[in-house]
Amino acid sequence: MSNRLPVRRIATEEAFSIPEVAAQLGVVARTPGTSLDLILVNNIYNSADGMGFLEPLLDIEQERLRIMDENGVAMHLLSLTAPGVQMFDADTACELATLANDRLAEVMGRHPTRFAGLASFAPQAPKRAAREMQRVVDKYKMNGFMINSHTNNEYLDNPKYWPILEAAEALDRCIYIHPRAPSDGLAGPMREYGMDSALWAYGVEVSTHAVRMILGGVFDRFPKLKICLGHMGEAVHFWLWRIDFMSLRAQQQGRAPKLKLKPSEYFKRNFVITTSGQESHLALDFSIKALGAGNVLWAIDYPYQPTAPAVEFMDSAPISAADREKIYHGNAERVFHIDAT
Ligand code: 1WB
Ligand code: MN
Known about the structure:
Blueprint: E1 10-16, H1 19-30, H2 37-45, H3 54-58, H4 63-70, E2 75-80, H5 90-110, E3 115-119, H6 126-140, E4 144-147, H7 162-171, E5 175-177, H8 184-187, H9 201-215, H10 218-221, E6 227-229, H11 230-233, H12 240-252, H13 263-270, E7 271-274, H14 281-291, E8 296-297, H15 307-315, H16 321-335
Parallel strand pairs: 1-2, 2-3, 3-4, 4-5, 5-6, 6-7, 7-8
Helix pairs in contact: 1-2, 5-6, 6-7
The protein binds 5-methoxybenzene-1,3-dicarboxylic acid and manganese (II) ion.
Manganese (II) ion binds at residues 13, 15, 178, 230, 276, 301, 304.
């Protein structure tokens, strides 16, 4: 342990919950519905042991801090765990997002060097969401925002969500798009073989979301908007050559709006990615080459992934010392407005 690299480790996709949100998710999961999220949400919030996740989600200042200390992790950038408030009715969602943000701010206030925060909002009510976004940056200096992909099967390219994108751009705060189970239209073939969540479906859901935003022209309208994708960019950058080629064809055929830039140029300008739950040196190497070390951030995905292997993965990555510093903390400090120490 003493021979660990002396580096500031900021983990950027670290989940928490509060009892009120956990209880409401339990209620939602008992209500009939079509969402593929109901399987996992039911397993976590309506089971005796919460799949082993519920306790560490609710515990922010005890065992979590001990695990951070034991592994040399300086800071968690906390976010309300998936699916956030996005399965609730609009009023409940607004109320619980505000409550979760207030609780998060209290924890950040008690441990300013250990916890930063991505605030929640209710996309079900875009104008109220924008007001909450303004409030938490003004009042709490929140470091950015978290959205758990689709809301009622709709994505952020839909103009109804523009107040949210406008607020994020004006506040200079990045929106992290975290997975939830796929929208109804994507969910069909994901129901067997354990594909419904992190194994496969989460990545398909979020990569689809990101590509919709790019091809829909979101970044021509909001050129300074920053989006963060976890799980090694949900593999979007692997596809960029083909997306560039085919999107020209789609634009020429009048099937997509004309874009000012190539899709790959938006991805490099408007997106950053994190390493959450994707501890492959090969994928890391590709990501640095494709996007630059300035666009890759380290994350653990606590408590869904164990901390020690995530640290070992990054400590032992065959990259330069300068790149390791960027990925462990420099990029997080820049993108999420975290004080450099
Ligand atoms: C899992 C991962 C489940 C995440 C989650 O439930 C979330 C999982 C909300 O590995 O089963 C996550 O945040 O990556
Ligand atoms: Mn996660």
